[in-house]
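Researcher: Next sequence.
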Amino acid sequence: MFDWQAFLGWNILVHWGILLFAALLVLGAKNWMVRVHQRFIDLPRETLWVSYWWFLALYKLLILVLFVGPYVVLRWLM
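Model: Next structure:
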């Protein structure tokens, strides 16, 4: 039988690690990130900043809904 709790638990750890890495990249290498993205799309710096933070917020929300929620429910049911 497949262990859904372990699967969801590992997914939570992996995705929180990716989220932390992305947040540190946005905070630590902001000038580099803006330069790279402005090469591909012509957006002002402020718009890119808002886009970065929206991406991080949406990614965090998806982690909570798709992995943490089911993990908590499975832990509660078992």
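Model: The radius of gyration is 17 Å. The mean pLDDT is 95.
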